[in-house]
């Protein structure tokens, strides 16, 4: 079972591993005139109009007018309703806008016409993950590798979602499989290391992490993972050298400071963690995760009033941040503000109810509410 803080670290690690789950780049090619210019059999009479729409859509896409491009490609889909690449191209653009629900629908339209297309299934999985429907995402990725067993990103995405469920052994096996057929895959090496860290096997984590650093020497996040492994081995000096190297590589990346802060907080180096959270906030003032992290440290230091303020600031930036809502409830309870605590914890319960992997947090909320209602 995952503790609250380890759950936060895992969630952040998955966020930083999001490079594993990019919007399918194959969809870009699907928006090219040459690719989309071949109509399906029932659209031959519309070839001239389609060519014009494809040219206009590509121009709008290249100029950054994504909404306009979507509208144009939707017109093309009306003229050629049997062309799955039009629907997948629309889905790509919708996902690029963050409109994942719409992208799911568009990928499903593409798959209705071409059900065995691994790229479409990968895009569907990516879009499901974008709206938090991780079980459906996992299913789509698994279907993708059925049709293309060596689909690197789909396999890695499966591993990420297995890790999210706490199935680290299965995730590790998946990452190693990718490394066997894609030995130059930086992500396959990095994610092996993060899985081993989650399994509390830091010595073993060094090998894939060092290989990841060799493959991509400018990737700061690998240095953060190496530092985290050193913290598990209680070697603070080597950990800090790794974190410093990460910040030297990417001094303007708030996520690097945030991940380092989380690792230091777990190891109970609260002063150092506070400094890194504050540096993350300096780079990204509206970072809800960093504000909540400072709140966590104030809570541990029994500075409950400051913790309440920081959790509320975090929630003003991200009202759906369940961890901040739970922290707020705990801090209010510690201050004896019973009704406010109950309200905060009830909201945390609602938010966690939407999470497919709440870990121990849901039970913690119920325990706290029971204590408050005595």
Number of helices: 22
Under CATH at level 1, the class of the domain at 1-163 stands as Mainly Alpha
- What is the helix fraction of residues, given as a range? over 70%
* CATH topology (fold) name of the domain at 1-163: Serine Threonine Protein Phosphatase 5, Tetratricopeptide repeat
Structure class: mainly alpha
Largest sheet data? none
Quick structural gist:
By secondary structure, the chain is mostly helical. The chain contains 22 helices and no strands. The model is unreliable at 1-39 (pLDDT under 50).
Structural commentary:
The protein is mostly helical and 374 residues long. The chain has 22 helices and no strands. The chain has helices spanning 4-16, 26-30, 33-36, 47-63, 66-79, 84-96, 100-113, 118-130, 134-147, 152-164, 168-181, 186-198, 202-215, 220-232, 236-249, 254-266, 270-283, 288-300, 304-317, 322-334, 338-353, 361-372. It is globular, with a radius of gyration of 23 Å.
Write the layout of secondary structure elements.
Elements: H1 4-16, H2 26-30, H3 33-36, H4 47-63, H5 66-79, H6 84-96, H7 100-113, H8 118-130, H9 134-147, H10 152-164, H11 168-181, H12 186-198, H13 202-215, H14 220-232, H15 236-249, H16 254-266, H17 270-283, H18 288-300, H19 304-317, H20 322-334, H21 338-353, H22 361-372
Helix pairs in contact: 1-16, 4-5, 5-6, 6-7, 6-8, 7-8, 8-9, 9-10, 10-11, 10-12, 11-12, 12-13, 12-14, 13-14, 14-15, 14-16, 16-17, 16-18, 17-18, 18-19, 18-20, 19-20, 20-21, 20-22, 21-22
Which features characterize this protein?
374 residues, mainly alpha, Serine Threonine Protein Phosphatase 5, Tetratricopeptide repeat, 22 helices, disordered N terminus
């Amino acid at each position: 079972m995952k503790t609250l803080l380890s759950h936060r670290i895992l969630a952040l690690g998955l966020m930083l591993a999001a490079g594993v789950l990019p919007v399918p780049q194959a969809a870009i090619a699907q928006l090219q005139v040459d690719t989309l210019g071949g109509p399906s059999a029932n659209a031959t009479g519309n070839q001239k109009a389609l060519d014009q729409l494809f040219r206009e859509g590509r121009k709008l896409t290249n100029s950054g007018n994504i909404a306009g491009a979507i509208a144009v490609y939707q017109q093309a889909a009306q003229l050629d309703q049997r062309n799955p690449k039009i629907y997948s191209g629309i889905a790509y653009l919708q996902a690029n806008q963050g409109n994942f629900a719409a992208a799911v629908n568009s990928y499903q339209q593409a798959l209705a016409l071409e059900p065995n297309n691994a790229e479409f299934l990968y895009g569907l999985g990516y879009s499901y993950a974008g709206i938090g429907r991780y079980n459906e995402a996992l299913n789509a990725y698994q279907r993708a590798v059925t049709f293309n067993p060596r689909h690197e990103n789909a396999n890695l995405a499966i591993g990420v979602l297995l890790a999210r469920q706490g199935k680290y052994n299965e995730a590790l096996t998946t990452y190693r499989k990718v490394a066997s057929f894609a030995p130059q895959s930086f992500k396959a090496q990095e994610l092996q290391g993060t899985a081993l860290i989650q399994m509390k096997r830091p010595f073993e984590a060094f090998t894939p992490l060092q290989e990841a650093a060799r493959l991509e020497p400018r990737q700061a996040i690998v240095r953060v993972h190496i530092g985290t492994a050193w913290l598990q081995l209680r070697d603070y000096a080597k950990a800090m050298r790794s974190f410093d190297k990460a910040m030297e590589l990417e001094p303007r990346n708030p996520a690097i400071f945030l991940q380092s802060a989380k690792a230091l907080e777990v190891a109970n180096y609260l002063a150092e963690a506070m400094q890194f959270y504050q540096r993350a906030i300096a780079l990204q003032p509206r970072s809800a995760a960093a504000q909540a992290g400072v709140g966590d440290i104030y809570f541990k230091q029994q500075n409950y009033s400051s913790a309440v303020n920081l959790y509320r600031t975090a929630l003003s930036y991200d009202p759906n941040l369940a961890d901040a809502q739970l922290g707020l409830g705990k801090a209010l309870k510690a201050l004896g503000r019973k009704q406010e605590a109950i309200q905060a914890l009830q909201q945390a319960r609602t938010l966690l109810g939407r999470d497919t992997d709440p870990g121990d947090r849901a039970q913690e909320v119920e325990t706290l509410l029971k204590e408050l209602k005595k």
